[in-house]
Design a protein that fits this description.
The protein is mostly helical. Helix content is 75%, strand content 0%.
């Protein structure tokens, strides 16, 4: 099964249902939360690299490498979020839209 070029969140969840079955991945929520947290740590590592290297002249190649790794780590995070939604029987696309409707009118205090 391949994803469409411009997949929806529903498409991503469907893909991960298929991939989990195909690869025999565990649907254990705590295990997958820990794996998501690990990926978030990798996101932080690449953001730190980008921040550090942005202040150093002649590091454009290093910054591009870090940006590409950040892209991959963010994709891993999205994959785990889709998987967690599947395991909890949550329509992620609907949940996102509902939450953003709330956020539009929400006031954050500084």
């Amino acid at each position: 099964m391949m994803l469409k070029e411009q997949p929806t969140l529903k498409d991503c969840q469907q893909f991960h249902r298929w991939l989990d079955k195909e690869k025999g991945f565990t649907g254990d929520l705590p295990t997958n939360v820990m794996l998501l947290v690990e990926e978030v740590g990798e996101v932080a590592k690449e953001v730190r690299r980008l921040r550090t290297w942005s202040a150093v002249p002649d590091r454009a190649d290093d910054m591009e490498g870090a940006r590409l790794r950040l892209e991959e780590e963010l994709a891993d995070c999205l994959a785990y979020i889709a998987k967690l939604a599947n395991y909890a029987d949550i329509d992620l696309e609907r949940a996102y839209v509902d939450k953003m409707r709330v956020n539009v009118t929400r006031v954050w205090k500084e």
